[in-house]
## 1
Amino acid sequence: QVQLVESGGGLVQAGVSLRLSCVASRRTFRSYYMGWFRQAPGKEREFVAAIRWSLGVTYYAESVKGRFTISRDNAKNTVSLQMNSLKPEDTAVYYCAAAEQLSFLTSRYNYWGQGTQVTVSS
């Protein structure tokens, strides 16, 4: 019954904004942290942002600080990633994930969504 479903990806031009959403089953929220990762072709999956569910404390990769914002909606069991000033280098499949503790490593996340494609053209 544990499930994470991402949505909101698409093809956009540089400078445009997108908002990704991740809807989680209630059972998934046994996890203390929710995170966003991304994986570009030929590259390893990398950490983008994370949020401590209870307090809303956020963490970001240096490459997205000031441009991306992770947030939560308790009522909807949803984690979002607001992506502003998108750059071609942001092109990747974006994944939502859940972990028991704060981590920037993919191996520490217990649950994963299927991903949503974000493509930013020059």
## 2
Amino acid sequence: QVQLVESGGGLVLPGGSLRLSCAATGSGFNINFMGWYRTPPGKTRELVAWITRDGSSKYGDSVEGRSGISMDIANNTMDLQMNSLKPEDTGVYYCTVAGLLFGRARNFWGQGTQVTVSS
């Protein structure tokens, strides 16, 4: 009933920017939380950023100050703008959402999108 569509990943030069988008499709889903996590090569999953329905947000230490996350409540979509990209930003980025599906609490994960920062 609910699927996540991720877009915006790819190869970016150091110092460049990109925008990751995530869209939750399906009826009856009211999202309370959306976020991005990533798995750099050889490392465990780490938080990139999350945002709640009321607009509260949090960023991982490594991206704070150069990233911005936003959420479109009406369309169940989320955007993550990342600037001044560094090689250590390389990894697989996963979208995650949590909310109420016809009144029942549910959590979903996207398939992941590759981000590579390299010259």
## 3
Amino acid sequence: QVQLVESGGGLVQPGGSLRLSCEASRFISGQYNVGWFRQAPGKEREGISFIPKGGSRILYADFVEGRCTMSRDGAKNTVYLQLNNLTPEDTAVYYCAAGRAILTADRLDPNNYNVWGQGTHVTVSS
């Protein structure tokens, strides 16, 4: 399986932006769907964005619409997540994940992803 490592988390002031990276151990475009997720303390893991294998039709969750950008650099085997206009509600552990197939109705369902990174903490506070 591909190995994933997230980075870029830390303390960010409200109104600021974050840019997270997820580096894969090998080239995965065309083989794996990739998604970004987050989990706040005491809450369920929720999907943020998704890019299908071999494509660029990025899907964003409604709660980040207009302030989120997911991108992929195939040459670096890396996907990125940029989230702007941060609020304390964005505080969470952020994960990237990969899966070979979408087996549920929701492409942002965590159950569609079998390979997960360790996560990177993001704290939004002044």
## 4
Amino acid sequence: QVQLVESGGGLVQAGGSLRLSCAASGSIKSNNAMGWYRQAPGKQRELVAIRTNGGTTNYQDSVKGRFTISRDNAKNTVYLQMNSLKPEDTAVYYCYANLLFGGETRSRDYWGQGTQVTVSS
């Protein structure tokens, strides 16, 4: 069974930095994409950043130039370096992965449990 385990959330002052990590475990045959979404109170879940296995990267406009996504394909791990954090970045951040799990014939979407990021003004 595939598991996504996140770490790195917390409380930080505006202008500060945090680094999120997410490791996928299980019998993974292929890893097509990994990324991060977030959901603030009263709002819908939204894409923050995603990186495909081929290296294509996509960011939400509001985080461009401040956040950097990276992957360690050998470890099935994705990172999100968040700099110059703003109060509006406050949300629960969810790790996402599109994986082909051993024994299955097509890839599926998987989600982490979420990690809270709070930016104080």
